[in-house]
């Protein structure tokens, strides 16, 4: 039985991680930390866990946590997470970081988008980007995993076959992305309260969203990305538009996607002419993709959905943990 700990366990992602890990047959959660809620049961912050896990939240104590943890999940704010990662790595513990601190390979790019100096730039070369479908072999031997962003995961999975097969004209990719409010985290901010989101729909980060450089880094091409806030709690839907570099039928485009993700447990390409909805992937680690084309036949229209708390965060983290700790990739998922 492997032992894992969650640093920053009171947010939506921390709670979702606990739910996934409770049904995992090969791991046990031994520590859950919180600086503001220390002393309370974790079930006081996540009432659905009452009777399932009785751990007490405590303030982070790396020396104590490292003694009986094979791996830690860091669910901390950016800039804060990198410093914690360094401490646990020095203590010999493997780290899956769910913040943005190690997603970008360039410290300069991180500083540009996150408006803060990178706390541990020397670790950037060590970190492996944790989109399992593309970095599986590297993840297996890694000590530090950068769990991808929720928008990034969905956008990259949806767009990648177009890029890898040379089907998208350079500079033509547009990603229209929509997320439930849980993607903003568990915080009190006016625009995220029920009265503001209910029966409402809005774009945000139009002039530059922090997940854009991550998406461009992994796709290797420029893209236009606009995020929108859906009046739902969980789920992401992205529509990727791209001018095609050559004439191709919808049938052949669909086959390219089906072949590209053949054998992938958690990416499902729907039947030709079918398009996904977020309800189908909520509370799961799956990404569903629908393949289409505009009526003129010169623009691919690809729709992808994930649960931002599942494949976009906690589920992806558990998928990565399985590889790092030697379990079958789908265990507990």
| CATH architecture term of the largest domain | 2-Layer Sandwich
- What order do the helices and strands follow? EHEHHEHEHEHEHEHEHEEHEEEH
Our measurement of the CA-to-CA distance between the termini, rounded to an integer number of angstroms, reads 17 Å
Net shape? globular
The CATH first-level class of the largest domain comes to Alpha Beta
**What is the percentage of strand-forming residues?**
15-25%
Compute the number of helices: 11
Number of β-strand runs: 13
- In what order do the strands lie side by side in the largest sheet? 8-9-7-10-13-12-11
Give me the secondary-structure category: alpha/beta
Mind describing the biggest β-sheet? 7 strands, mixed
Task: Say what oligomer this is.
Answer: single chain
- At CATH level 3, the topology of the largest domain is Dihydrodipicolinate Reductase, domain 2
Low-confidence stretches: none
Give the count of structural domains: 2
- Radius of gyration over all CA atoms, rounded: 20 Å
